[in-house]
Amino acid sequence: MANHRLNQIQNHLVSLDIDPTRVDGHVIIITGAARGIGRSAAILLAQKGAKVAINDLDSIKAQETAQEIRKLGGIAEAFPGNMLDETFPAELVAGVLTKWGKINCLINNAGFCHDSAIHKMDDARFDVIMKIHNYAPFRLLRALSPHWMDPSVRDMPKCIINVSSTSGLHGAMGQINYATAKAGIVGLTKTVAAEWGRYNVRANAVAYGWIDTRITQPPTESKVLSLDGQEIKVGIPMNAKKWRDVSDIPLSRPGTADEAARVMLFLASPLSSYVSGTCVECTGGRFM
């Protein structure tokens, strides 16, 4: 019955000449949206009609991304802030609700690596990765709960897209903290899908493989993340030869941020209206 109804809806959209990838009027929060996959997703979703809340630790870059979207004719507002701050997730949700009155989609994209071999990993390095990849998404969801559980928005489209990684699905040398956190986000996603389906909320994750962004390029002295007075080098070293070897990627190349963003569009749009509780792998075929 569900598939039959979905086919009816899709056929109706086609008959009306409506693009099922459109998200017109949807309010979408994207964390870590000033660079890489988050930035590409923000631009793409705005082009598809969304009002995009651009969150990033880097206030200048967040403003630049919002301005770029507006120059292209889209609607976007920068909401810079540190997702590691315990109070900021609730402030972000409140700010977006004040601005636009609703939230349709949350994309938990903010994150970084802080790698080390297991025997050299200290508690602080492990803890910060758990906080950005697990605690921050949880706090945003908790802040959203009064809005999304309100019976008046029962039929409003609502979805969550959480960013995982092949490190979380398959493990990765030197990434005991990151792999643990990215595995955790899959469990979080499935729990939300099970618990909030009654409120018409869909929850899905995307496990990315090698996507060519700042986080996967070789680290340099100029590419650092300044966080609470600590400088964290961003990137994966060139000597990670096994990871950089494309011979086990059937498409024989890394993906681009724009390609990664299209998976988010699929999960945010009516195209995936009956998809929930799953983890989509965007890997070029690696690990299949």
TrEMBL record:
UniProt-recorded Gene Ontology molecular function terms: oxidoreductase activity, acting on the CH-OH group of donors, NAD or NADP as acceptor; quinone binding
One BP annotation, GO: fatty acid biosynthetic process
InterPro entries referenced in this protein's UniProt entry, alphabetically: NAD(P)-bd_dom_sf (IPR036291), Sc_DH/Rdtase_CS (IPR020904), SDR_fam (IPR002347)
Keywords linked to the UniProt accession: NADP, Oxidoreductase
Domain of life (superkingdom): Eukaryota
PANTHER family: 3-OXOACYL-[ACYL-CARRIER-PROTEIN] REDUCTASE, SHORT-CHAIN DEHYDROGENASES/REDUCTASES FAMILY MEMBER
Family the UniProt entry places it in: Belongs to the short-chain dehydrogenases/reductases (SDR) family.
Name of protein: 3-oxoacyl-[acyl-carrier-protein] reductase FabG
Native species: Penicillium frequentans
